[in-house]
Amino acid sequence: xxxxxxxxxxxxxxxxxxxxxxxxxxxxxxxxxxxxxxxxxxxxxxxxxxxxxxxxxxxxxxxxxxxxxxxxxxxxxxxxxxxxxxxxxxxxxxxxxxxxxxxxxxxxxxxxxxxxxxxxxxxxxxxxxxxxxxxxxxxxxxxxxxxxxxxxxxxxxxxxxxxxxxxxxxxxxxxxxxxxxxxxxxxxxxxxxxxxxxxxxxxxxxxxxxxxxxxxxxxxxxxxxxxxxxxxxxxxxxxxxxxxxxxxxxxxxxxxxxxxxxxxxxxxxxxxxxxxxxxxxxxxxxxxxxxxxxxxxxxxxxxxxxxxxxxxxxxxxxxxxxxxxxxxxxxxxxxxxxxxxxxxxxxxxxxxxxxxxxxxxxxxxxxxxxxxxxxxxxxxxxxxxxxxxxxxxxxxxxxxxxxxxxxxxxxxxxxxxxxxxxxxxxxxxxxxxxxx
Length: 436
Fold this sequence. Notes:
Blueprint: H1 7-21, E1 59-60, H2 71-87, H3 89-92, H4 102-117, E2 124-127, H5 130-139, E3 149-153, H6 158-171, E4 174-178, H7 186-198, E5 203-209, H8 221-230, E6 234-238, H9 250-253, E7 257-261, E8 273-277, H10 310-325, H11 328-347, E9 353-355, E10 368-372, H12 378-392, E11 394-395, E12 397-399, E13 407-410, H13 418-431
Parallel strand pairs: 1-11, 3-4, 3-5, 5-6, 6-7
Antiparallel strand pairs: 2-8, 7-8, 9-10, 10-13, 12-13
Helix pairs in contact: 2-10, 4-10, 5-6, 7-8, 11-13, 12-13
Protein name: Selenocysteine lyase/cysteine desulfurase
Pfam families: Aminotran_5 (PF00266)
Signal peptide: 1-27
């Protein structure tokens, strides 16, 4: 399929580019990019999809990869890109007067993210991705000794599973994997974690994913963290699909360590993530690669040294302001759950469609995977994904790694409209028996 921009997109790009590159915009090379004004609750949630410029020829239900920037964030990112490109080391070496420097940009980003999750700015490091944050937390967890056990489940993210396995091959840990029960309920999720902790008395570290990238299952993190702590087990929480979608605060979760992608549901530019370490636990995460140019009592020493995308970093506060402008998670989560329910409700009667997460709003939101009868191998899952896309213009993604069998993940984004959910439902009604 060949995708071409429509007339509105072409005219919009043509109109925007000269404005961004005009002599007026570049007249003062030391002037910081103007910050857009986004007041809290100023954008009705019903207008959420209209804030995004996306390809509409395809029903894109694969928002789980990363979050599209809304228009105001994308425009801010462009302005910051021009600004950083103009100033170069004048910006990065912190020689500008006032606020126009890299150090202040980093502090502003940390403060914005901390505001979202209810912690101190000093407990947040901005990373290159959620995977980057979580890999550093896992592999640099200092209390682990050879012979201690570490635990993860089949619904955790591949990169995090790899990091947990690394603790076995490189630090002598005993690696324990268990499978999430199907169908999942709050009771049997908690029972599964209780069981694995009970039969692993040597456990020291537990990985918990708040929203599974594979199925969309929301785990009762607070209860699991408390359960682990009662047994002397530390928990690292993967909140990549939760922050800025659900109402997440670090105190509510109760964890000491967490990581997530700021370029997912916060809709910041690609290449942004966040690491959280509770202040009194900072010494339990080793500094990255002897990163001694940053003081050891600074959380930023837990991130590898290197040049980052400064424009993306500078754009994070605008993305956070947009989050609050649409009503934050109190408005976003019900809106996204309604889009999810819209397609799920239309296929409930299909005997060949198995929905992988319960309707309980505490256990599901926007990501919802399904399995067709007969979809027992990766090849069959890929065939379903291909049929939905090529015949119905519905983009989903197949996910492997679930203990029982692969699944297809459908993820409406903040840009999604009711007709996108309807398109998936219609496609499933047409194709639900394709494998039998």
